[in-house]
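note to self — DONT lose this again. spent like an hour looking for the file last time. sequence + predicted structure for the chain T wanted, 210 res
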Amino acid sequence: MTRVMLVDDHAVVRMGFRMLLGAKGEVEVVAEAGSGEEALQAYAKHKPDVVVMDLSMPGMGGLEAVRRLLAQDPKARVLALSAHEDTAHPQRVLKAGALGYLAKRSAPEALLAAVAAVARGERYVDAQTAQVLALAQIEGETSPTEALSEREFSVFIQLARGASVAQIAENLKLSPSTVGTHLYHIKQKLGASNQSEITLVALRWGLIEA
């Protein structure tokens, strides 16, 4: 029996995943969380075999939660889920230490296969995402956000979603001056003069939903 924790800010989505995963009796959902912050606390309590983590959540967000979870327990096995169709999210979350990546558009049975693979300690990337990553590499099409550091990317995503410097500082547990420094570097690297232009970059490359 594989013990799973579901992390998604939508209760209806978690309920659907719980029903799907429990259908064959091989997976037990032992915990649920609606944010990255809740996930870190729940993981320490339940120690699941696999964490299924949505990347688009309020607060610190899924990518930051994956980083902190793996800093807390380097052996944690994480399957990242995302509705985005960009290359930056899978690249960054896999680089951060997630074992698997699954696009939410994938067929239901893909979730079962992905959880089983990650539980075994194997890499898993859904076929369509793998193709997008491979084609981007072949064609040399790179997002300007690839120039951003991991921390700058986390700040960038929050800025693109309209969060203020104070909100980002609270979400990522950073000082406002540190966030301000990241904001300056982000603008320099992306050639953006304000937050609206940062949002446009994110929208153009599919990093946030319109």
